[in-house]
Amino acid sequence: MVHRDLFGTGRLVQAADLTLGTAACPATAQNAAENVVTFTAGLHECGSSLRVTPEALIYSTSLNYSPVHAGNPVIIRTSPAVVPIECHYPRRSNVSSRAIQPTWVPFHSTLSSEQKLLFSLRLMNDDWSTQRASAVFQLGEVLHMQASVSVGNHAPLRLFVDSCVATPSPERGSSPQYAFIDFSGCMVDGRLDDATSAFISPRPRLDVLQFAVDVFKFAEDSSSLVNPS
To answer: 95 and 157: one domain?
Structure first.
């Protein structure tokens, strides 16, 4: 039985896009109320394979997801997937008296552990070695900011900052606002005559981007607080 929320994102896959094994056996039933697709097949059917170990008989197959492009053919909103499934039967016990549970892990759990990306934006000290302990600055000083992403098991990534906006409160939609990075990654603050803001080159790593911004405050804000996001 396979839940149609295969990736754990809330977007349901089509039952017709799911098949079992190398023979691509289709589903035998579908529960529309619970969004569950059922496959019924013999252990030797649908192209499954058998592996014998001293302790068990292991039948291997796979759940295949091959999405058919619908709507606009220029774009895709999901990727194909193959989920391995194994059923283990002990060789030294009566296997007919109890249910055998497959040992597969739901695909959305595997997807989350392998592709979860953690982004961060930190104030760094002057030599970029550690995170700055204090967030208090005087006008005339320089903010050393570092954006990074923890890729985990993901393929290597190059990180870019599309925009960075300063506000007097933590809410991004608060007013006034000042965008010192804008227009798909341009350091617009560095173009002002009284500023030397710039990206730091070369990068320490592809997944890290460092930039220096001259300290500023909002002209009509008495609190002198700035929150980048």
So the answer is: no
